[in-house]
# Entry
Amino acid sequence: MWYEVKEHFPKKSKFTLGAKIDIIFNNILELTLLAGNLPKDQKLPYLQKAISQFDLLKFFLRVAWEIKALDNKKYLLISEPLVEIGKMLGGWKKGLENKTPANFSRRNS
# Structure
């Protein structure tokens, strides 16, 4: 979806802000793929980095909307699925945090 929207980015922003957003999207994909393939005890740091990148992504998309590189329709088109992705990442993180040995020992002491 982003790549379709990026095609309509103004030329003056496509290779700066658009490229930055591209990099962040790719970072999120890479970090979540890595987290998904690691043993449970190693997932959390990668997931936390993915969530940080996700927050950056939302920030830069907002900047793109505010400078009118994205119109309202395209901003909503991208933003709506991001809300769901954010919920999924947050739920995944919470699930991992609840299963860590440190949390387990605190609950049982």
Residues 2-6+14-98 form one domain.
